[in-house]
């Protein structure tokens, strides 16, 4: 069946000049217009920080760093200085770089650190994770452990970006975050609910209880003012001394002390040795005139997305129709093939040799020839299931474009929501649980054929594999799209669909963000689809052999991603910001 669908929801929401704030009930609307600059992110206060920096003459990198630091205060479930991530920068002169500030394993880490003498899992590095059906599971709270924490990368990444490509000082861009922490900010219902939902865990850790809970022990309420004095002091040290204000001196001493008390491995040597890295982006040409710039390893996003786009380039997706059964089928098959290669081959390229053919057009043609146009390929025919690390959904992405045409796409994370839930005493800073992104069971083969994949096993100072996919797209060499998303393994597919929705299906940026999304990751052999896709299409996909899971973000529990994105209009040059209606968010342009 070849049905054409264009997903348009009822128009509603708030516009104030070039400003829009989205909530979970917001539906389709036109993107927010900025004639010069645009910032789009999950939380309005932090987004306003970026917009103010742009209006004062800061460039996109200045604004992106200020935004990320503010989110560390106002978006505690994912915004951070105790985690890490990836930033893609494209300057107005066409220079493109990728900044890798992914967390690293401590120097004392080893492949069997979570196993007992019999090879059984003794420590679970994940505090919360997403089941295969999309629901979230919270393990017993006695499994909280400092061994879950990787060496943080966010302060180093932001300092490097600002030093190399910014125009403002760290002291200037971090000041709004300091003020938000020191003076407090008013909690929304969503943030209050999120903090209250973790009370059981926070209450078991004295520093977390002090930092994350109300002093009187009662639930946070919408309208409460949350003041974070210790976090403000930690931010001040970064503002004064940049990179060294976090990785040396008092903050480093506090981290090492807390690690020793909690049985963790990170010490001041690990902190002093941590450096963010400037890498060459993964570049890939799609349909001749569009070029994508996205993250190289240890993010799997760039290579995996290139593999899928190269396969899909052989189909006329526009003519096949947006979210028609035929389009969804070939997309799912491309996802199945690419995610299998992701699991087999990808890890930290500083430690693992990666096959060079994966992103070639010839390899894509060979992969495309495996796609049956009428029937789904069982995943076990692609290869046996492998033991993979758990990748929770709680991450955050934001996009920034300035008046000169510099652009930043940034995705960073604590791993699970609120990371390890461990606040380092005296810092007010939540830490990550990124060690759970390594494959934790080396050499274990299960009856189902699962094996511990070597490329992503724990090694000292190794960066764990990620799916984060901040991406910038050019059209005929000119800046066109700035996209990305949170969502664990769904990130790559969500980001790719944002691109396809614009290029192949002619959507504006807001339509592209709002449209229902799908996800297949090879194993489990299940196709997940957001609500809004017609019953006829779902029935046709089932007839092809796809195992369908479909629940809409408007009325069901499954939602995929949070794609705060920007398009630059090729005709006017205006910046078109698109917050994602699946969650509270904002776009501020000028």
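Q: What amino acid sequence fits the structure above?
A:
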């Amino acid at each position: 069946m070849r049905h054409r669908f264009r997903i348009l929801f009822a128009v509603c929401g708030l516009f104030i000049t070039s400003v829009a704030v989205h909530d979970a009930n917001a539906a389709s609307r036109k993107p927010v217009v900025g004639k010069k600059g645009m910032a789009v992110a999950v939380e309005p206060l932090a987004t306003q920080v970026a917009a103010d920096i742009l209006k004062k003459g800061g460039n996109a990198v200045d604004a992106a760093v200020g935004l990320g630091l503010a989110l560390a205060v106002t978006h505690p479930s994912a915004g951070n200085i105790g985690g890490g991530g990836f930033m893609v920068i494209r300057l107005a002169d066409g220079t493109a770089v990728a900044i890798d500030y992914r967390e690293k394993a401590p120097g004392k880490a080893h492949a069997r650190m979570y196993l007992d003498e019999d090879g059984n899992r003794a420590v679970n590095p994940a505090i919360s994770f997403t089941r295969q059906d999309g629901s979230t599971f919270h393990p017993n709270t006695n499994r909280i452990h400092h061994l879950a924490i990787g060496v943080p990368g966010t302060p180093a990444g932001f300092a490097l970006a600002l030093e190399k490509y910014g125009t403002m000082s760290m002291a200037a861009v971090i000041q709004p975050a300091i003020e938000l922490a020191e003076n407090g900010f008013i909690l929304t219902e969503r943030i209050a609910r999120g903090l209250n939902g973790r009370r059981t865990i926070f209450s078991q850790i004295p520093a977390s209880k002090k930092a994350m809970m109300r002093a009187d022990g009662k639930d946070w309420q919408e309208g409460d003012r949350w003041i974070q004095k210790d976090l403000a002091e930690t931010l001040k040290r970064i503002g004064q001394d940049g990179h060294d204000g976090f990785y040396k001196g008092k903050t480093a001493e506090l981290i090492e002390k807390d690690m020793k008390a909690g049985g963790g491995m990170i010490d001041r040597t690990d902190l002093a040795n941590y450096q963010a890295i400037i890498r060459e982006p993964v570049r890939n040409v799609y349909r001749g005139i569009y070029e994508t710039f996205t993250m190289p390893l240890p993010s799997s996003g760039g290579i995996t997305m290139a593999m899928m786009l190269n396969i899909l380039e052989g189909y006329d997706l526009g003519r096949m129709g947006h979210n028609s059964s035929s389009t969804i089928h070939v997309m799912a098959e491309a996802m199945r093939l690419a995610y299998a290669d992701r699991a087999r081959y990808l890890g930290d390229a500083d430690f693992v040799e990666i096959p060079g053919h994966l992103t070639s057009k010839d390899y894509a043609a060979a992969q495309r020839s495996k796609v049956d146009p009428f029937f789904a390929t069982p995943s076990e025919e692609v290869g046996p299931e492998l033991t993979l690390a758990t990748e929770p959904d709680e991450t955050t992405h934001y996009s920034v474009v300035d008046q000169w045409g510099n652009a930043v796409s940034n995705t960073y994370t604590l791993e699970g929501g609120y990371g390890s839930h461990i606040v380092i005493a005296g810092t007010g800073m939540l830490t990550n649980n990124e060690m759970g992104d390594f494959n934790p069971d080396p050499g274990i083969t299960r009856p189902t054929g699962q094996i511990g994949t070597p490329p992503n096993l724990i090694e000292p100072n190794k960066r764990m594999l990620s799916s984060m996919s901040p991406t910038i797209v050019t059209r005929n060499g000119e800046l066109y799209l700035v996209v990305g998303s949170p969502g664990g393994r769904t990130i790559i597919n969500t980001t790719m669909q944002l691109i396809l929705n614009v290029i192949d299906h002619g959507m504006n940026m807001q339509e592209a963000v709002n449209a229902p999304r799908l996800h297949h990751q090879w194993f489990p052999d299940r196709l997940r689809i957001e609500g809004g896709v017609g019953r006829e299409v779902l029935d046709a996909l089932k007839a092809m052999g796809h195992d369908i899971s479909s629940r809409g973000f408007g009325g069901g529990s499954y939602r995929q991603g949070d794609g705060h994105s920007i398009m630059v209009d090729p005709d006017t040059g205006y910046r078109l910001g698109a917050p994602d209606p699946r969650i509270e968010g904002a776009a501020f342009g000028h």
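Q: And what stands out in the fold?
A: The CA atoms of residues 72 and 80 lie 4 Å apart.
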